[in-house]
Amino acid sequence: MTIRDTALAAARAAGAIQKRLWGTLLAVDQATRNDVKLEADRLCEEAIVTAIRRDWPDHAILSEEAGALGGEGDCWWIIDPLDGTVSFFYGMPYFCTSVACYRRPAPPAPPEGSNTFGRVTITLPNVRKRSGGSGLESLGEPLVGVVYAPPTDELFVAETGKGATLNGKPIRPSTVTKLEESMIGTGFGARPGAVAHFVEQVGRLAPRVRKVRAMGSAAYDLCNVACGRFTGFYEQRLRSWDIAAAAVILREAGAVFDAIETSEAEWNTLAAAPGIYEELRDLVRGR
After folding, report:
1. Residue 25 burial (CB < 10 Å; 0-12/13-18/19+)?
2. Containing domain of residue 249, as a range?
3. Residues 164, 186: one domain?
4. H-helix or E-strand spanning residue 97
5. CA-to-CA distance for 276 and 233, rounded, in angstroms?
6. Which among 71, 72, 216, 246 would be 20 to 30 A from 139, CA to CA?
7. Are residues 13 and 46 in the same domain?
8. Tens-digit pLDDT profile for residues 207-258
């Protein structure tokens, strides 16, 4: 059993639950102004955790629902059992499950104000910082990313150094080189100020691009950049489980992925086709 095999089995197990429950009367665990949490989220998480623990019992897991589940192995899994819960709740066919595995980074000495997760220390700095490379180096070395969208039966898979596929066929980002010919994905979360920033961001993007779309699942949106449907994507304050699997898929597909870690251990995330990356980056950063 390989890590890739486990990731595929875990994503498909969660996807089977989503297919069974989608469109039925759903039990709501928690509701806020801009978000809901469902029993379906927990059931999908249980299926993924079971698959991982069966094959790799010493691996740690970070999940949107349960948080950190400890383990002393050299790898950890970062999962979003149901990304796009609100769409799922309202019967919209735009949601997915996201499963990633990373090799843990060597732990630094825990500074004041840090959260320690097993042997991984995730620093919460007082100032905004930019990581090198793709921006996710604090998560470790990416190994495998799988995103499965049950409504369309689309399975995005990437393994470091082996390319990215959609339902077994290689994918590449868009070849568009002009921002005005681009369709850009974006979104907003449930945190204070998110809606106001979203409105500001759309106001900046819309006059410069062909269309802006907010579909409600960051992981799926990012995969749609990887396969050339969206030309780019930008959203602030995403969490590690929103982007960990898609980051592997984007990189292996040949798209540009950039993440800035904020003081809340969240990520301002930009992904784009190479031909528009610099122009889109400057636009969303107000340059």
Report:
1. exposed
2. 179-284
3. no
4. strand 96-103
5. 11
6. 216
7. yes
8. 999 999 999 999 999 999 999 999 999 998 899 999 999 999 999 999 999 9
